[in-house]
Prior knowledge:
Oligomer: heterodimer
Number of strands of chain B: 0
Radius of gyration of chain B: 23 Å
Structural class of chain B: mainly alpha
CATH class of the largest domain in chain A: Mainly Beta
Amino acid sequence: MSTVASVRLARAAGNRQLLVRLLVVTAVMFGFGFALVPFYEKICQVTGLRSLLQPDHVGSINSQIDYARSIAIEFDTNMRGLPWTFRSLEGHVSVHPGEMQQAVFEIHNGSNRPLTGQAIPSYGPALAAEYFRKVECFCFTQQTLQPGETRQVPVVFVVDSALPSSIATITLSFTFFEVNGAQAPAGVSTPVSVKAGAVRS
Amino acid sequence: MSQTTAATVAHANDHALDHGDHAHGHHPTGLMRWLTTTNHKDIGTMYLWFSFTMFLMGGVLALGIRAELFKPGLQLWHPEFFNQLTTMHGIIMVFGAIMPAFVGFANWLVPIQIGAPDMAFARMNNWSFWLLPPAALLLVISFFVPGGATAGGWTLYAPLTSQMGPGMDLAIFALHILGASSIMGSINIVVTILNMRAPGMTMMKMPMFVWTWLITAYLLIAVMPVLAGAITMTLTDRHFGTSFFNAAGGGDPVMYQHVFWFFGHPEVYIMILPAFGIVSHVIPAFARKPLFGYSSMVYATSSIAILSFIVWAHHMFVVGMPAAGVLFFMYATVLIAVPTGVKVFNWLATMWRGSMTFETPMLFAVGFLFVFTMGGFTGLVCAIAPIDLQIQDTYYVVAHFHYVLVAGSLFALFSGTYFWLPKWTGHMYNEAMGKTHFWLSLIFFNITFFPMHFLGLAGMPRRIPDYATQFADFNMIASIGAFGFGFSQLIFLAGVVKCIRGGEKATAQVWEGAEGLEWTLPSPAPYHSFEVPPQVK
């Protein structure tokens, strides 16, 4: 009789030990899900993927201005969750590949409280994204506007002359999102990874 | 020492350890019996009824989808509600119907197949089950909150899920609860299988169903917490100002897809491996031959499980991965066809020159083999990245995963139900009803989903309430099939209820060719079995 009892007790202890181990695995895997976030950011940083909110390198591209070609650049402005107005002063411009160009946008906070926004660019056609090099952009930083404040913000860009000849028009669309709560400073210190999300989703 | 004494001692011990084993012949009755039960057979039964209820609920949502798609143009629902239907159909079928049904099978069968008296943690087993109804309730309630249920698709992709109403939060909580239940159930199954086997039952003597569930349980423990992490990040993005997937704050919606599919791909094997286990019991029984290539089956199952962790990005070929990444995930995915092929050929070899008879379980198993393999082949088509770029998010994908989930997982569940139902109830089911259920299911299933291949190849996108008129004919056929398939399942319900109430008395052996410890128990299996472990030679 006692042997049956002791076998049972020994088994229960073994079961409990295994239970604890499996619970540890569960906890580790929960943490693993969160660890994927910095892991992917690191991968994007190392491989140079998704650098949408950082200045592009223009040193590597052909600096020869291709006067034979003109590319129409159309600017589109959108607002999501912000009581601001946001418009492009130019509406559209025409540039030659390799030529440095500046465009100015105007944002205005019509509400009665200070608000912070972040602009996210996207491109149409999506293929144009990798040939559109932004040297300076208001989308590299968050914009904070006081009540009633109006601000003019620039984008300085070059279109790479390697742009496929089938593309004659590029639409650059910015959407301003409200930034609230604790945010990573977009585009400044952290490698930001939004290209595919903003462009394709 | 007599058997009775040993059993009594065992009970006394159980009681001391678990405070919950009502093994002394004074069970509570009525609702309290089911609320407080720690008996693996009671809990298995509850899991099966719960999953069948959810199956009907998810089925009604599916019929809502097919009714809308019967004709082009908007007929019945607003597009917003249609999106809720597709989303909730997926969530309910995956997390409410298929997964709990397999856990129900595991509860019923694992202890009696390995000669254990019960699951290792009987009280935790009770909790695992009773977490499910509140989660189901949250999902139902979510239809009635402002904005309705979540409509971002069952994959709950950001940024859609960042923008939904409170229905999304309810779905997140429901998934957390369902996930906790799955993890507890899986831990229980792993411990039971590793520690509670009868003397003499070595790992390589375990029945195939036990093997497949052991591997499935490990998969669940590894990936359910990752899903919990992903939806927790969605929740904090929605309410606590984090920016995991919120592009404006420096997050990335595509990263959600990476995290989700790290869970999501093993999840599809979680839903099919136990089905492989069931079929590996049914086919040998009705071919009256032992399973061909038992050890290769074990290794194939393990390989599928391991490979399932390195193929997740084949669900996201179009997000703009580097070509090297696309190629890696494509080759890894195609590699899975090898162990799966091993299994299919082993089942065929088991049937080869066997003395086959075609009772309902065997019909469903052969139906599984035939239709699941078709789903496997369309899976290979989808795995080829250049083709996937064309058929991504079309009805071709819908056809593919319904071929493997309905004709795969669900047919195997039906096969297993008819196979073990006499052991569970003590009565034979009505063979004519079973066969009618099978043939109607098989025919209507194909009427529903086969045309979807053509729709997908012709470019009809999934998850839309309206479509171009050139898709009208095939959609009408699919909708007719769907209603036929749905109503055919009522025959199953009637057959099971009839079998529970009475019928021809089942013998202990039930099926001439069936092998395993469970068939040494009388039918119905007694409330307490294998109190004294059997000796396995």
